[in-house]
């Protein structure tokens, strides 16, 4: 069947490939545990689910305004005031079908064909595809585990060209879990303002930052330079609401209008019931996030100590999200020469599904999600260690 070039250029998701193989092995009777998941293993808080049930019972089941119901947009604006001291109005907020649609719409309204987007690598899998779908060009900057996978102003300046339109920042990061301090973000933001580079800040994990690290955001920079910054966020990771599909963007009112135009001609408003649930999440208190955060810290510590006990591995301590991203290329052999082959072997021999680092633009590493119970996580990491040791030179 003939398909448009646009779709043939997009790479299939590496996560899906590994999941398909895992399913085949499960169908053949093998016990496979997935450390490939990108979602919290907790239930959505009770009061959030209750708000959705009430919305249904009250018949709140019709179209809403495209950018979201006013009270939700106002609550999102309030979020930025509460956590980052930023004054925003409802006109600065659009509610989207997950954080992913925020990013999709942003690239659609910001990029002209050939515009370059700087993407620090390792990066979240969808960034290059989202840029490509907007006819943009991804320019990657490799970061190192020794520097906590953080990008520097010097590295950014080295790849800047007259075609550079955007930089995408993601802190805490998927896949590394590494997190910028506010001072590090400030330095990058100052560079971007000086050079006229628009910064999209993907802050979807901002509620999952672990002490002593502190949350950091580009929202205050948006307040100072509204035409230079946009912040994308959502409720998926913080409130264990991946399936509800609630994301949002904070940006200049003109940008919000442009994004709303795209959304109005493609998907319209997000689910009306999910909007009521999101409103309950944002206005119902933050205590419910504490046990989730505590569990993640415990698992991060457990995972990190196991990984470091493997030996020839470099793994910075993540300060947020729920991923570890060890550099394991010391173990590569002629038969297992890269992260994809290693993940295939680990699936087969350890019964653990992982996403290869290549999917995130760093073939030296593998991504381990610790969004599952401590005991299963511990068993998986022991089995991975055994397989790695069998590859020892
Ligand atoms: C870094 C990052 N940004 C954005 C998203 C999109 O989240 P959502 O489920 O809200 O679309 C994800 C989800 O995995 C992510 O890891």
Description:
By secondary structure, the chain is α/β, with parallel strands linked by helices. It folds into 2 domains: about 5-45 and about 290-390, Aspartate Aminotransferase, domain 1 (Alpha-Beta Complex), CATH 3.90.1150.10; about 60-285, Type I PLP-dependent aspartate aminotransferase-like (Major domain) (Aspartate Aminotransferase, domain 2), CATH 3.40.640.10. The protein is built from 14 helices and 12 strands. The chain has helices at about 5-10, 15-25, 45-55, 70-85, 100-110, 125-135, 155-160, 180-195, 220-225, 255-265, 270-285, 290-310, 340-350, 375-390, and strands spanning about 35, 95, 115-120, 135-140, 165-170, 200, 230-235, 245-250, 325, 350-355, 355, 365-370. The strands form 3 sheets. A 7-stranded mixed β-sheet has the order 2-8-7-6-5-3-4, with helices on both faces. α3 (about 45-55) packs antiparallel against α11 (about 270-285) and α4 (about 70-85) runs parallel beside α11. The longest helix is centred in the last third of the chain and has 20 residues, at about 290-310. It is globular, with a radius of gyration of 21 Å. Bound molecules: pyridoxal-5'-phosphate (PLP). Keywords: Aminotransferase, Pyridoxal phosphate, Transferase. This is Aminotransferase. It holds the Pfam family Aminotran_1_2. Its EC number is 2.6.1.-. Belongs to the class-I pyridoxal-phosphate-dependent aminotransferase family.
Major sheet, described briefly? 7 strands, mixed
SS field, number of helical segments: 14
The count of domains is 2
How much beta, percentage-wise?
Answer: 5-15%
Radius of gyration: 21 Å
Report the oligomer: single chain
The CATH homology group name of the largest domain: Type I PLP-dependent aspartate aminotransferase-like (Major domain)
Mean pLDDT: 96
Bound molecules: pyridoxal-5'-phosphate
Number of strand elements: 12
C-alpha end-to-end distance: 48 Å
* Lateral strand order in the biggest sheet: 2-8-7-6-5-3-4
Name the helix and strand elements from N-terminus to C-terminus, one letter apiece: HHEHHEHEHEHEHEHEEHHHEHEEEH
Content-based structural category = alpha/beta
GO biological process, one term: amino acid metabolic process
Pfam family, one: Aminotran_1_2
Keywords: Aminotransferase, Pyridoxal phosphate, Transferase
EC number: 2.6.1.-
């Amino acid at each position: 069947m003939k398909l448009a070039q646009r779709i043939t250029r997009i790479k299939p998701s590496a996560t899906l490939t590994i999941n398909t193989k895992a399913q085949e092995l499960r169908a053949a009777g093998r016990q496979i545990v997935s450390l490939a998941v990108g979602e919290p293993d907790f239930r959505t808080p009770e009061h959030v689910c209750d708000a959705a049930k009430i919305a249904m019972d009250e018949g709140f089941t019709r179209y809403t305004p495209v950018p979201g119901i006013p009270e939700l947009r106002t609550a999102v604006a309030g979020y930025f005031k509460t956590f980052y001291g930023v004054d925003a109005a409802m006109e600065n907020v659009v509610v989207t079908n997950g954080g992913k649609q925020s990013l999709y719409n942003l690239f659609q309204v910001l990029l002209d064909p050939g515009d370059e987007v700087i993407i620090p690598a390792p990066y979240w899998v969808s960034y290059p595809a989202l840029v490509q779908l907007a006819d943009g060009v991804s320019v990657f900057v490799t970061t190192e585990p020794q520097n906590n996978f953080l990008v520097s102003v010097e590295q950014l300046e080295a790849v800047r060209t007259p075609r550079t339109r955007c930089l995408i920042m993601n802190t805490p990061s998927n896949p590394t879990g590494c997190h910028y301090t506010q001072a590090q973000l400030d330095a990058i933001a100052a560079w971007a303002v000086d050079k006229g580079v628009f910064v999209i800040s993907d802050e979807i994990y901002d509620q999952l930052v672990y002490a002593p690290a502190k949350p950091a955001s580009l929202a205050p920079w948006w307040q100072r330079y509204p035409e230079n910054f946009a912040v994308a966020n959502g409720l998926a990771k913080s409130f264990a609401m991946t399936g509800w599909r609630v994301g949002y963007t904070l940006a200049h009112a003109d940008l919000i209008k442009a994004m709303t135009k795209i959304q109005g001609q493609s998907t319209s408003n997000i689910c009306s019931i999910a909007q009521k649930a999101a409103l309950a999440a944002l206005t119902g208190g933050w205590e419910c996030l504490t046990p989730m955060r505590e569990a993640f810290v415990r698992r991060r510590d457990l995972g990190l100590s196991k990984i470091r006990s493997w030996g020839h591995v470099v793994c910075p301590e993540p300060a947020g999200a729920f991923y570890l991203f060890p550099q394991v290329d010391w173990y590569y052999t002629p038969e297992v020469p890269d992260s994809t082959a290693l993940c295939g072997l680990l699936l087969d021999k350890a019964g653990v599904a992982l996403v290869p680092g290549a999917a995130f633009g760093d073939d030296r590493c593998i991504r381990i999600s610790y969004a599952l119970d401590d005991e299963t996580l511990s068993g998986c990491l022991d089995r991975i260690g055994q397989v790695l040791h069998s590859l020892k030179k």
